[in-house]
Amino acid sequence: MKSVSNIRATSWRLVIMSFASGVVSVVLLIGMAYWMARWYDAGVPVPQRNVQTNQELLQERADHQKEALQRNMADRERLVESIHALQQNNPNYTVDFLILSGGGDCGAFATGFLRGWSTAPAGPLARPVFEGVSGVSTGGFMAPSAFLGTTQDDVRVDELFRNPQPDWVQRRGLLFFHPDNPSLANIPGLEREISLYVDLPFAQRLVDAGASGRQLLIQATDADEGVSHTFDCVAAARDAVASGDVTPLRNIFLASSAIPGVFSPQEIREDLFIDGIVTGNIFYWFYGGSLKDSKTFGAIWKERYPDAPIPKIRYWVIINNYIKPPVLTMQQQWIPLAQRGLEIAIRSFTEITLRHLFLFAEVNRLRGEGECEVRWVAVPSTWQPVNNEEFNLEKMRSLSDLGRSMGENPDSWNDQSP
C-alpha cells in the first residue's frame, strides 16, 4: 500500500510540474512574441512633451481666449467697414457664411452638395460668394475649395472624396492597441492627398481670395487647455507664402480631423491639437455669438452708420451626417451600446448647436440688429448606407450622388430649427 501511495504522489507531482512548465512556456512565448512585435513595429519614438503646471496652463488658456476675443472684435469692425462699402453699390447686399460640419467619410455628402449647388438656378437660394467659410474635422478638408468657390475646386474635392484609397487609413502594426502609441491608425494616404492639394500656389490662391477680408476658419481642439481653437487659414496661407513652407498650413487640416485615439494628434507651436468635433461639430462664431450686446455686428453697424440699413446675414449649414441618429433595435452588449452612446451624443450635440444658431438669429432680430436667416441640410434619414465600412468607395459615392442631387434642388434647404 505504501508503494502505491508513493506512486500516486509522484504522479501528482509530475502533473503539477508539467502544468506549471506549460504555463511558464506559454507566458514566455507570449512575452517573446510581444517584444518581437515591438521590435518589428518599432518606429520613431514619440518625444515626451514638456509638462506645464496647472497654473501655467490656466494662464495660457486665459491669454489665448483674450487674444481670440480681440481678433474676433477686430474682424467684426473690419467686416462692418467692408460691407458698408459694398452696400453703396448694392443696397440689397447680404452677408453669407457657410458652415461645414464634421462627419468622417460622410463628408462626401457635402462635397457632392457643393458641386450640385454651384449649378443650381439663379434665385434667392442660389450659391452666393461667402464672406466666411468654417469647417470642422472632415468639413475642414473641403472648406478651402468652398472658400475659393470655383467649379474646378468643387469638382476636384468631390472627386477626391468619391475615390478613397486603401492607404488613407491604416492600422498601426501588430500592436496597434499599445498604450504608448499616439493613435491606433496611421493616415499616410490622407497626408499624401493633403500634400498634393495644399501647395504654395494653392496657398497663394487662399491669400488672394481673402485679400478683401473674407475668412476661412478651421476649428480644432486644444488638448492641453481643453477648449476649441480656431485657425485663420488665410493668415496661415499668408505665412506659408512668405516662408515658402506650407507644412504648418497642412497641419491645421490634419489637426482638425485628428480623432482622439484613432488618428495622431498634431503639435502646432508647442500646443497639441485633436479633432475639432470634440468641442463643437459646427462653428458659427464669425461675427456674433457670446459677446456683449454693444459688441455685436449689428450694434457696431448702428453706432457707425445709424442711417444705413443693417444688411441681412445668412448662415448656410451643411451637416455631414444625419441630424438625428438612425433608429434601430439594440441588444444588451457593451461594445455596441458604447458605440451607440457616442453616436447619439454627437448627433444630439450637433442638433443642439444648430438650435442655438436659430436662437441667436432670433435674438439678433429682437435686439433690432438686423435680419439673420439660418438654413441647413443634412443626410436624409431615408438614406441607408450600402455597408458600414469606413472610407468605402461605394458608400462615399452614394453620399456624393445624394448630396449633388440635393444641392441642385433649392427646396433641399430647411429654414426651421430642428
Summarize the structure.
With 418 residues, the protein is of the alpha/beta class. It has helices spanning 2-41, 54-87, 108-117, 138-148, 151-162, 188-197, 200-209, 233-243, 247-256, 297-304, 334-366, 393-407, and strands spanning 95-100, 132-136, 170-171, 185-186, 215-222, 227-232, 266-268, 271-274, 313-318, 372-377. The strands form two sheets. Strands 1, 2, 5, 6, 7, 8, 9 and 10 form an eight-stranded mixed sheet that branches. Strands 3-4 form a two-stranded antiparallel sheet.
State the helicity in percent bands: 40-55%
Outline the biggest β-sheet. Answer: 8 strands, mixed
Structural class of the helix and strand makeup? alpha/beta
Shape type: globular
Mean pLDDT: 85
Model regions low in confidence, pLDDT < 50 over at least 5 residues: 33-40
Total helical segments: 12
Give Rg in angstroms. 27 Å
How far the N terminus sits from the C terminus, by CA atoms, comes to 87 Å
Question: How many β-strand stretches?
Answer: 10
Task: Tell me what portion of residues adopts beta-strand conformation.
Answer: 5-15%
The run of helices and strands is HHEHEHHEEHHEEHHEEHEHEH
Q: Explain this structure to me?
A:
The protein has helices at 2-41, 54-87, 108-117, 138-148, 151-162, 188-197, 200-209, 233-243, 247-256, 297-304, 334-366, 393-407, and strands spanning 95-100, 132-136, 170-171, 185-186, 215-222, 227-232, 266-268, 271-274, 313-318, 372-377. With 418 residues, the protein is α/β, with parallel strands linked by helices. The strands form two sheets. Strands 1, 2, 5, 6, 7, 8, 9 and 10 form an eight-stranded mixed sheet that branches. Strands 3-4 form a two-stranded antiparallel sheet. Helix 3 packs antiparallel against helix 5 (151-162) and helix 4 runs antiparallel to helix 5 (151-162). The longest helix has 40 residues, at 2-41.
